[in-house]
Amino acid sequence: xxxxxxxxxxxxxxxxxxxxxxxxxxxxxxxxxxxxxxxxxxxxxxxxxxxxxxxxxxxxxxxxxxxxxxxxxxxxxxxxxxxxxxxxxxxxxxxxxxxxxxxxxxxxxxxxxxxxxxxxxxxxxxxxxxxxxxxxxxxxxxxxxxxxxxxxxxxxxxxxxxxxxxxxxxxxxxxxxxxxxxxxxxxxxxxxxxxxxxxxxxxxxxxxxxxxxxxxxxxxxxxxxxxxxxxxxxxxxxxxxxxxxxxxxxxxxxxxxxxxxxxxxxxxxxxxxxxxxxxxxxxxxxxxxxxxxxxxxxxxxxxxxxxxxxxxxxxxxxxxxxxxxxxxxxxxxxxxxxxxxxxxxxxxxxxxxxxxxxxxxxxxxxxxxxxxxxxxxxxxxxxxxxxxxxxxxxxxxxxxxxxxxxxxxxxxxxxxxxxxxxxxxxxxxxxxxxxxxxxxxxxxxxxxxxxxxxxxxxxxxxxxxxxxxxxxxxxxxxxxxxxxxxxxxxxxxxxxxxxxxxxxxxxxxxxxxxxxxxxxxxxxxxxxxxxxxxxxxxxxxxxxxxxxxxxxxxxxxxxxxxxxxxxxxxxxxxxxxxxxxxxxxxxxxxxxxxxxxxxxxxxxxxxxxxxxxxxxxxxxxxxxxxxxxxxxxxxxxxxxxxxxxxxxxxxxxxxxxxxxxxxxxxxxxxxxxxxxxxxxxxxxxxxxxxxxxxxxxxxxxxxxxxxxxxxxxxxxxxxxxxxxxxxxxxxxxxxxxxxxxxxxxxxxxxxxxxxxxxxxxxxxxxxxxxxxxxxxxxxxxxxxxxxxxxxxxxxxxxxxxxxxxxxxxxxxxxxxxxxxxxxxxxxxxxxxx
Length: 833
Description:
Blueprint: H1 3-22, E1 30-35, H2 37-46, H3 55-69, E2 77-80, E3 85-90, H4 95-114, H5 125-143, H6 145-156, H7 216-223, H8 229-250, H9 252-257, E4 261-262, E5 266-269, E6 272-275, H10 276-281, E7 288-290, E8 297-316, E9 321-325, E10 329-331, E11 337-339, E12 348-350, H11 387-399, E13 400-402, E14 407-411, H12 414-426, E15 432-438, E16 441-448, H13 451-460, H14 475-478, H15 482-496, E17 497-500, E18 503-508, H16 511-524, E19 529-534, E20 537-542, H17 545-553, H18 559-570, E21 581-599, E22 604-607, E23 610-613, H19 617-623, H20 629-642, H21 653-668, H22 693-703, H23 706-713, H24 716-722, E24 726-732, E25 735-742, H25 745-754, E26 764-771, E27 776-781, H26 790-804, E28 808-814, E29 817-823, E30 828-832
Parallel strand pairs: 1-3, 27-28
Antiparallel strand pairs: 2-3, 4-21, 5-6, 7-8, 8-9, 8-21, 10-11, 10-23, 12-21, 13-14, 14-16, 15-16, 17-18, 18-20, 19-20, 22-23, 24-25, 26-27, 28-29, 29-30
Helix pairs in contact: 1-4, 2-3, 4-19, 5-6, 5-8, 6-8, 6-26, 7-8, 11-15, 17-18, 21-22, 23-25
């Protein structure tokens, strides 16, 4: 690896780590090393760096390396559960593979740190394993390598038979002996034994262990009569290392399967144009957001809020602006995503022109404060905000005012007087019109004495306390259908806009109002520009081809302005081409609460007219990083290879874990199919919360192991989708063949979970360490329908005789018959019980 590649890799490690933290992960810090294939496969075989030597590790190494060399399998990375975590990357991986692996490593590290089954693991196990190896090498020097290796053969044959509930050191606590019974009989009973001695009480029978013990390694270490101290020490070492590996064995499936803008940003959503903080406050309701292409939207899966965060605010030449966290990303002209902290003056930001995503629901008029009926009921207003009332609201924002007893309008056009008074009379009002001639300026003043109408406009958000610089577009308008929004803009432009040789010019002292109008116009497909304020007044200009789009989609209601706009369009045979990109001209820094969302499929959204990127884990993190198009294609190929279903006779833990986690996120986000009945893991119907998918994933990450994970969350839908079934061997025409045994989803799920009982190892307990008072070891296999592997059982029994020093007996079931297997170190005897 060259120095430049090393620097790039270090940069990506830092970037991915920051992205993992941003997404809510809480991993240990990770120390990465790039290693050649032979080192990676050696570590994979030994399972821990610097571990003791044994021939089984060499065997595993050659098997894995041979499969790698023939292209059968490949280890991309290894990560060890320590603090800080230790990760090794394969040196022949390209940069995209390294990025995938790094993201995967941080997902593992987060799981190691936060899953309850890893809570008591030794985070310094690599150092402890190194000390173990040194002690074992010392024993080899003292007792001989062959003697130590043969002893390790015996101990490793039963290394899985431990009980993680028991303490690492020492025997399990024994029950306190019962107190000696109080003497019974006469007070002078002792006089009878003055001549002859008092008979001794019969010795209390004692059984070792007093209760069946599952930890076979611990029992042999503490009770074997033939072991020397160095041998007991080796058993302790093997048991400690096995306790370290046990949580990883129990969480193989779930473990493998494992950006922000400020609240005033305006998002284009299926519920209308909404502020980010308002969308976050209503996050329980399903919603989709525009993703930057015409009429395209995707569902919001999750929400995120980060209070009091350092921010960067950028302003473009046309006046578009966005403020967000330093790691928030926007789309640039050349199609690449860039962090706000990396944007430079002159970078051209992509604008989302003509997304045309609107609410489809007409908004009800506000409810009266003192009455259960709506304010509109006092007049003849419609129940919902319609186009006519929206036009009046638009004109009121431009040239309206509040009076003590109602509202008023000012206009210089008789056409407007006729239209507004006609609307007001139709709603039951009695408007009074006064022609006012002052300073050679003629104006009509329309007065409406209606406290009900006044209170209604206040409830809508047009407060009399708002001065000219504080005017807004009411949220009820922004969350209305397209036609209602267009009518509001038409009324507002009739009041405050100019149409003529310069195109369309809208003037306002309110920065918030003018920027909101600019964002709304962009959703219609109208690109406008805001000039810096002059004497406290902002101007929004619509020129060129965009003026024609404005005339077609919104237009003026006032005839003279509509005609002036038409002349402007007709007098220009062509317009200069204007592309939807805008250079950054100003960058400012600040602090604010910031918000983000997770968007399905597209992983981006539109806010303030710009296109933003939203914030398993290797896929989720990699999707959110600024990869080139070629890198995205390569990442998708690698990701698809990792989560292949596997063969018909085996499960790929990556694939199963990935699919189940995705399904959990889908269900807890409320994305339930119409014919899908939602139940809990016990089968009872329930209502799922909406928008809590990510929260549920973190809960599952913390609390579950593979057994509970699959039993609770492997649903009927997933079993069908994953094509899971059980199978058995049958004889057909003299040949043994595999056939499908069961496809019922509950049977399949329970069989899968059952195979994970005791992490796939038969449950064997120590029943008696002094069987029939001969010092022999009696074990019991708790039969669960799965017979023992007799070849391995025979080998383990011989090793147990070597460790115990006396014959060993094992109670089990063979061919539905309860039998006792006895081994004296050589022969194996079997008899029925």
